[in-house]
Target: DUF969 domain-containing protein
Amino acid sequence: MEWIKLIGILIILVGFIFKFDTIAVVLIAAFVTAMVSGISIVEFLEMLGEAFVSNRLVTLFLLTLPMIGISERFGLRQQAVVLIEKIKSLTPGRFITLYLVIRELAGAFSIRIQGHTQFIRPIVNPMAQAAAENKYGKLDEEDEEMIKARAAANENFGNFFAQNTFVAASGVLLITGTMKSLGYDIAESAVAQMSIPIALIVLVLAGGYNLLMDRKLAKKYSKREDKGGQQ
Model:
């Protein structure tokens, strides 16, 4: 009968396969597991409440979603696009590289502006798309997806390779704590200092990567314009 306690996993699998509401599926799975395990409803609610309180910082992420939706609804994306359209010389690759510079500088000062949901989707990607359309005209769907992916990738580059440039970053503290527990005398500032060259190397490589994207788009859409003029 101990196997019956794994029924929650089955419920989650079935719910995900049939694409039911995620939160409802998880709550139902937890409730059923508690019932078959001999946990009373009151105890289950207490456990649920304690888990919510102990992980309340995680739930703050859920509060950002409606805020982002409201911002988009009242013109945040449109205003960002209008701003980019006024800069004629800006290409999507240059803009994304500029964001990467800002992202790494923000990481060095522990300023949290990142996030695919909070920042890339509502602001960075629309601005990069606007820069591309302003430069090359109407884009193909595959190129729109490429720019979208490139914007998300540069967020990952900046987050992963520049996060330890701040002396009190969690990664820096983890590294120094682990090394000190092994008997190595290492300072947090030394770890942050050694992370700076890595961030700069990534910035150069990603900038070149984005430049190649610009050249690819320019070549593709210049040929299209030539064909249109000949016709």
Notes: The first helix runs from residue 7 to 17. The mean pLDDT is 81.
